[in-house]
Write a structure and sequence with these properties.
Order of helices and strands: HHHHEHEEHEEEHEEHEEEHH
Number of helices: 10
CATH topology of the largest domain: Alpha-Beta Plaits
Distance between the termini: 28 Å
Helix content: 40-55%
Shape: globular
Radius of gyration: 22 Å
Largest sheet: 8 strands, mixed
CATH architecture of the largest domain: 2-Layer Sandwich
Strand content: 15-25%
């Protein structure tokens, strides 16, 4: 009990409830302005942020009440969740996310693995109660997916998911080979914050190349009859973004620009990190980034994070979206 109370006192200091209340009052002041709802998307995001701040205050007060009532176990569970959030203080940790999966080399095996990862993460999003919307998806010719992109929305989504970015490795008996040979497959997970404003990113109209085509995603005949889908290329960087989730072309253009801005921000961050790393260690980063996690289904069952050393033999549970322990270990050890 004494240890729990000490942890709770430390939590209160780190959270700074007075600062949270001040932020809530600031948003309330903004919302009272006549032009607040002119930008509905921005206004909704601010109101959602306020609800998140209020939720943190209420959760803290709930822990305090449980401690007073002597309900240690319940208090410890809620306290742990709050402690995890105190590590999420990065600039974009509260942001929504642009989440992508790309199959690595290896043909149908890699594409099937990418589809398995897609299912795993979507299950995780659902368990967390996060909202997601598929922006683009390219199916494999025989099975699986070549790539997948979605937006994910809720409080602290980027903070929770940012360390999931990197190469994921699967070892299993191949379901596509009659001899059931052991096969290793790779897929890349990309996690970007939805960046509305980035002073370090400049996008000029003359650097953009737009293409329009008929959407191949779900949406009915109306989507198929007109060229609503967009493909945007940023000529200086070579980045290409595709969006076909919305019914109207203008909506897809807006989302494509948002994704491009986030990707350019990530490039700028990567360059800065690379320069810093070279100055410190004289090393360069691999093009695909580091391999972060191995999923072994044969000859034994084990999922292991190669950075935190957290591992489990419950592979089915992990592939069904049971990622909480891995992500919490990342937040504590890598943030």
């Amino acid at each position: 009990m004494a240890d729990l109370k000490k942890r709770f006192e430390n939590l209160q200091q780190r959270l700074n409830l007075e600062d949270l209340r001040h932020q809530i009052k600031e948003i309330e002041r903004e919302s009272s302005q006549p032009n607040f709802w002119q930008d509905n998307e921005k206004a909704s995001a601010r109101m959602k942020e306020m609800a998140g701040l209020q939720g943190e205050i209420e959760a803290t007060e709930a822990v305090e009440k449980l401690l007073v009532e002597g309900k240690d176990q319940e208090a410890e569970k809620k306290l742990k969740k709050l402690e995890i959030k105190t590590f999420l203080s990065g600039k974009y940790d509260r942001s929504n996310v642009i989440f992508s999966i790309h199959a690595g080399q290896g043909g149908v095996e890699a594409m099937d693995w990418a589809a398995m990862l897609k299912r795993m993460y979507l299950r995780y999003f659902e368990k967390k109660g996060w909202q997601y919307e598929v922006i683009d998806e390219v199916l494999g010719e025989e099975a699986g997916i070549k790539s997948f992109t979605a937006t994910v929305s809720d409080s602290f989504v980027y903070g929770y998911l940012k360390h999931e970015a990197g190469t994921h490795r699967l070892v299993r008996q191949s379901p596509f080979n009659a001899d059931r040979l052991r096969q290793t497959s790779f897929a890349l997970v990309e996690v970007l914050p939805r960046v509305e404003e980035a002073p370090e990113v400049t996008i000029r109209d003359e650097d953009l190349e737009w293409q329009f085509f008929r959407a191949s995603t779900q949406g009915g005949q109306n989507v198929q009859k007109v060229s609503t889908a967009v493909r945007l290329k940023h000529k200086p960087s070579g980045l290409v973004v595709t969006c076909q989730s919305q019914r109207y072309q203008q909506q897809n253009r807006k989302i494509a620009m948002e994704i491009l801005r986030s990707k350019l921000w990530a490039l700028a961050e990567a360059r800065a990190a690379e320069e810093k790393k070279q100055l410190k260690k004289g090393k360069t980063m691999a093009a695909w980034g580091t391999q972060i996690r191995s999923y072994v289904l044969h000859p034994y069952k084990m999922v292991k994070d190669l950075r935190t050393d957290y591992e489990t033999s419950k592979t089915d549970a992990v592939l069904d979206g049971g990622l909480d322990e891995f992500i919490e270990a990342e937040i504590v050890n890598l943030s």
